[in-house]
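Retry 2 of 3 after timeout on previous attempt. Resubmitting structure tokens to design endpoint.
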């Protein structure tokens, strides 16, 4: 038994040139501080740090690498009496994008875990290297502290093979680990449980379609708390129309662009991941700007309207598909930046689906707020909800549960 209760968890989300962080006290799930280090490796690096209840502090200057970034974060936390050397810190939880088939739950990091995350880099070349850097840097700063990896893909490992397998040669697929993995798993896990709670029911009794709509977007079919299908696949490119990603398309388009367009694999990769989706259709990947252009009318509105219509068409197709997969749907939950804030998206997504029991109340849909809420009519057969996601809390909760169980933390 430790003399000082260890109830705090630092959550790190390490990108290639950024580190997002939150410090939470798991006694009451309260946030003690949040922050962001961006433009790591540049002369104009910036750190924004906000302790709960006080004003944001900003610092601009060169931050050479992730080690320097975490040391800067530690120094800011120490100013508030929340430093990384605190005995109240129980663990550091790390978001790791790709865990493959192997990692089905949060995992305490050791050399074997690090090696497996590194082995998965070919299927997550943009994310896993940065996640690894964050873990190794945190290990160097606090080698005595448990480092826990929480995987975006873990929630989706419950999918049956009929949903996870692609219809290609099995030997080739297995050799190159080609299958549907899914992403945004921590968000889908949190939102599906929070939706059940909103309905006053246990997660195992509820079937939910979760629509995580941000710049990246994904849908999932959750039956009784377990994912049975999801829209993203081997990579986050598949599925819904996104801010800069195409989502679903005929794979032969790639061959056509190679043979007829003379484009290289890297050029096509950039096209589909960074120059497609909403930005490719109308030049904007911000749904607020797209709606502004539509509402303003004029010549500029037509292209924005088409982009919006394509976005909604794809979204509606997935709602219908996952309704069929689940057989019975108790709720549809909208979450993430667009899902939580864009009332026109929510309204359009369920328009015309009244025969499936889906509808939104226009007045409820127009209300903005930070709390989970229903936007469907009182007598609706299927609840339509807005459920703000909280991936950091989900990572902290999973991290703390793991280390508390293994180390008898108080």
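Retry 2 succeeded. Sequence:
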């Amino acid at each position: 038994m430790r003399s000082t209760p260890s109830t705090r968890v630092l959550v790190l989300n390490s990108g290639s040139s950024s580190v997002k962080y939150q410090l939470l006290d798991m006694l009451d799930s309260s946030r003690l501080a949040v922050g962001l280090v961006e433009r790591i490796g540049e002369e104009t690096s910036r750190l924004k740090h906000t302790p709960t209840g006080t004003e944001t502090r900003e610092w601009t200057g060169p931050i050479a690498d992730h080690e320097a970034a975490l040391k800067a974060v530690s120094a800011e936390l120490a100013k508030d009496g929340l430093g990384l050397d605190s005995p109240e810190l129980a663990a550091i939880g790390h978001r790791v994008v790709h865990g493959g088939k192997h990692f089905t739950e949060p995992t305490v990091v050791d050399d074997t875990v690090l090696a497996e995350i590194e082995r998965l880099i070919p299927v997550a070349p943009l994310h896993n290297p940065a996640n690894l850097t964050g873990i190794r840097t945190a290990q160097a700063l606090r080698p005595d502290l448990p480092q826990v990896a929480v995987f975006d893909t873990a929630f989706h490992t419950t999918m049956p093979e009929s949903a996870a397998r692609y219809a290609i040669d099995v030997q080739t697929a297995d050799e190159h680990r080609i299958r549907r993995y899914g992403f945004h798993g921590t968000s889908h896990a949190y939102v599906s449980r929070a939706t059940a709670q909103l309905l006053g029911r246990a997660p195992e009794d509820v079937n939910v379609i979760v629509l995580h709509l941000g710049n990246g977007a994904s849908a999932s079919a959750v039956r009784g708390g377990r994912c049975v299908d999801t829209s993203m696949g081997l990579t986050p490119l598949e599925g819904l129309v996104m801010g800069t990603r195409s989502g679903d398309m005929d794979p032969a388009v790639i061959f056509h662009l190679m043979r007829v367009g003379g484009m290289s694999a890297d050029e096509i990769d950039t096209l589909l991941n960074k120059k497609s989706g909403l930005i490719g259709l109308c030049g904007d990947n911000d749904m607020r700007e797209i709606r502004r252009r539509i509402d303003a009318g004029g010549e500029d509105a037509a292209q924005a309207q088409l982009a919006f219509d394509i976005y909604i068409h794809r979204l509606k197709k997935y709602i219908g598909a996952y309704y069929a997969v689940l057989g019975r749907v108790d709720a549809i939950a909208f979450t993430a930046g667009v899902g939580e804030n864009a009332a026109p998206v929510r309204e359009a997504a369920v328009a015309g689906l009244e025969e499936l029991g889906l509808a939104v109340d226009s007045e409820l849909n127009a209300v903005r707020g930070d709390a989970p809420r229903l936007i469907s009519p009182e007598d609706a057969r299927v609840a339509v909800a807005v459920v703000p996601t909280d991936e950091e809390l989900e990572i902290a909760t999973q991290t703390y549960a793991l280390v508390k169980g293994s180390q008898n933390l108080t």
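Attempt log closed. The chain is about 40% helix and 20% strand.
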